[in-house]
Amino acid sequence: MRQKVLTRLLLSRFAWLLLALLPQTVAAQTDSVAVMRRAPLAVGLYAQGSFIMAHTAALRHLVVSHPTGLELNFQRQTTGTQPWHGWHGYPKLGLTLTYYDFHNPVLGYAVAATPYMSKSLWRRPKHDLSFRLGAGLAYLTNPYNRLTNHKNNIASSAFNASIQLRFEYDYALTPHLGLVAGLGLNHYSNGATTKPNLGVNLPSVLLGLNYHQLRTPPQRNPNAPAPTDVGRTFYNLSTSLGFKQRSQSDQQKYLVNSITAAVGRRVSRKSALVAGAEGFYDRSLKATLEDTTRAGLRQPDVKKAGVFVGHEWLFGRMSVVSHLGVYVYEPYRSSTFYYERLGMKYHVTDLLFGAIDLKVHRGSADVIEFKIGAKL
To answer: pLDDT over 70 for what percent of the chain?
Structure first.
C-alpha cells in the first residue's frame, strides 16, 4: 500500500514538472498551469550582424570586419505578482546568451550572458515594440597580450562587463510563434580594471523567432496602491572597493576605496532622488606621483572628496542608479572636475543593500565599485 502511495506521489510530481516545462496549448484546471500562466516563458533564437564602432582613433586599425552573432534568449512576462509589475507596465525579465565572431584573428570571439529587463513601448495582440536594457558578463577569447596580441587595445582581460541596449519588434505569426526584428548596441569592457581598455561597441541588427508559451497572459493588480515610503526621507551610508591598473606597462592592480553618506527621498512609486558627499582614495594616483615627482619635493594629497546628486529608478528591491558629482577637494588633479556613476543596487533586506557601480570621467571608465551599505 505504501509503495502504491509513493508511486502515485512520484508520478504526480513528475506530471507537474512536465506541465511546468512543456508548452501548453489547451487550458487545464491544474495548479501547475496556473503557475505557468502567472509567469509564461518565451524562448528565442536570433541571428545578429554588426560593425565595430570606432569611438576613438586608436581603434581604427581593428575596424576591418563585420562581426556576426547568434543569440539564445529566455524571457518571462511579469503578470502582477509584485506591485511594481503594474507600475512599470508589466516588463519582461530575461537572460540572453550571445556568441559573437569578430572575424578578426586579433579579436577572436566573444561569449556573453546578460540578464535584462524589457519594457513594452507599444503592445497589441499581434504586435509588441519594446526596449531592452541588460548588464552581465562577457568572455573574450583573445585579450591584449604585450607579447602575442599587442594590437588588441579593446580589452586586456578575458572577462568583461556586458551591456546591452535594444529596440525589439515581435510580430505574431501564430498564437505561439513570433517573428522578431531588432536594432541595438552590445558593449564589452572591463571598466579599467586592466589596461588597455578602450572597450568595444557593436551596433547590431537582428532577426529571429520567439516561441511564447502564452503571448498575452492575464495581468492583474494594475493599480496597486503606492508604497508607504513615498514622500519619506531616508539616509544611506556605504563603502566600496575596486581595483584598477594605471597603465599597460604597470601590471599591478591598485586598490580604490570610497565612503559615501547620502540623503534621499522617494518621490513616486518608481523614483527616488538622492544627494550626498563622498570621499575617494585611489592608490594608483600615489604610484603615479612617486614615478613623476622629483626627489625631495612634497607630493600633493591624492585623496578626493565630492558632492553629488542622483536618481534611483525603482523595481521592487532592485534599482538602477545614476549620479553626477563634482570634486570639491582634489589637490592632485588627475581627471575632469566632475564624475558620473551608473550602477545597479539591490536591497537584501530593508536595512542592507549591495551595489555594483561604474565610475566614469567624461565617458571614460575610472573604476568598477563593489559597494555595501545601509539604508536608515
So the answer is: 90
At 95, the pLDDT band (50, 70, 90 cuts) reads: very high
The answer, yes or no, to whether residue 96 has pLDDT greater than 70, is yes
Amino acid, res. 152: N
Architecture of domain 36-212: Beta Barrel (2.40)
The domain ranges of the chain are: 36-212, 233-375
- CATH topology assigned to domain 233-375: Porin (2.40.160)
Q: Residues 263-289, buried b or exposed e (16+ Cβ, 10 A)?
A: ebebeebbebebebebebebbbbbbbb
Q: Encode pLDDT of 37-91 as tens digits.
A: 458 999 999 999 999 998 888 889 999 999 999 999 999 999 999 999 999 999 9
Is the pLDDT confidence value at 17 over 60?
A: no
In this prediction, residue 38 carries a pLDDT of 58
Write the pLDDT tens digit of every residue in 110-140. Answer: 999 999 999 999 999 999 999 999 999 999 9
* Domain pair 36-212 / 233-375, same fold: yes
